[in-house]
Amino acid sequence: MLDRSQLVRELESVSQQLFIDDKPVYDLAKKIWKKICSDSTFQYKVRAVEAPWPVPSWDEQLDKTYTIDSIDTYNLISVDGSQIYPDRHQGVSCYLINIGGVILRYGHAQPVTLFSMPYVFSGEAQEGVELSVELINGKREELEFLIGMQKAIELKKEQPKNLLVLFDGSLIFWHLEAKDPVLKELFLSQYTASLFGLYKERILTASYISSPRSRELVNLLRLQLSDFDPQKTALYKPIERLVDAAVCSFFLKQGERTIVFKNHAHISDQYPDVVQPHFFYIHIGTEIGRVEIPAWIAQDALRVDHIAQMVYDQSQKGRGYPVAIAEAHEQAVVKGPDREFFYHLITKMGIERSRVIYLSQKVIKKRGPSV
């Protein structure tokens, strides 16, 4: 049980670190941003530096914005996943991945289709990789992209126009950089294969990141502040707390998007050229979100605009967050009763096959704690 009086004292002890006046930092960052936007040679200076952090490239005026037009008729698919990890206290070694999603058809007779697809795997090693949380998370993400691609191809036969597959999270698989090389190679190839499959079908693909913590635009400020010498860390230390969304707030208004930037993270170099990640920021009113798209879409301004229209419309319908992503999460999430049902079925199947399932004392106590 939480000791609330002690909690108050603990919060008081760190309050100065929690509530910092960032106005001077914002003023400095805004000043530097205006300076680099007015410097026609800035991108050449950036390209001449080997920065230790991802720095984007771009083809238009840095602070140029585009107004997002309204859209009424379109089709959208969103997919999400959740899992039940293996639990040694339950007496069996297996795990479940549940893929949920939604198909929205605006302007059509059948407007909504919901789906949920459970997959069960044994606890044995797969693809030569030992079972781990990283393997299960990677498998879940693989299925999210694969099912998203399959559902989109099916829907294209029915509704070939104005179709978008919208994923939650990043198309830049940053998390794979630090993984075991075998895991990295396994899942990167699977993820990009699904993105390439969507490209071959010319199905619009994007991901949305709410409250993004990305700092690629901030890294441009870092270079300017350090006079393009990243070793001079003290010069850009004041802006270390900033994120790109804060930079975008200097010039981006509600209902607008930024230009498209190309991501240059090391992991992105390993994607097929046509699906290498690009991104733009979008002001939906309640927040500035980040939209990531493959290269083949980034190179077509009309396709970029179309995606921005659908993402913005979804955010307005969802009161600040894309309604399709929220609904896909609801279809995917595995709640407490679902988990209990999963293990109940395993126990029942074990009994039917004359196999004894040994539960740990911890599980037994949780089911019926003594006083």
* CATH T-level topology of the domain at 69-210 and 252-332: archaeoglobus fulgidus dsm 4304 fold
Uncertain stretches: 358-365
How far apart lie the N and C ends?
16 Å
Structural class by helix and strand composition:
alpha+beta
| Gross CATH architecture of the domain at 69-210 and 252-332 | 2-Layer Sandwich
The largest sheet, given as strand count, sense and whether it forms a barrel, is:
9 strands, mixed
Shape: globular
CATH class (first level) name of the domain at 69-210 and 252-332: Alpha Beta
The overall strand count is 11
Feature tags:
371 residues, alpha+beta, archaeoglobus fulgidus dsm 4304 fold, nine-stranded mixed β-sheet, two-stranded antiparallel ribbon, 13 helices
How would you describe the overall organization of this protein?
Helix 4 (about 135-160) runs parallel beside helix 5 (about 180-200). This protein is about 40% helix and about 20% strand. It has 13 helices and eleven strands. Strand 6 (about 165-170), helix 5 (about 180-200) and strand 7 (about 205-210) form a beta-alpha-beta unit. Among the domains are: about 70-210 and about 250-330, archaeoglobus fulgidus dsm 4304 fold (2-Layer Sandwich), CATH 3.30.2170; about 215-250, no CATH class. It is of the alpha+beta class and about 375 residues long. It has helices spanning about 5-20, 25-35, 40-45, 135-160, 180-200, 215-225, 235, 245-250, 295-300, 300-315, 325-330, 335-350, 360-365, and strands at about 55-60, 65, 75-85, 95-105, 110-120, 165-170, 205-210, 255-260, 260, 275-285, 290-295. The protein has a nine-stranded mixed beta sheet, sandwiched between helices.
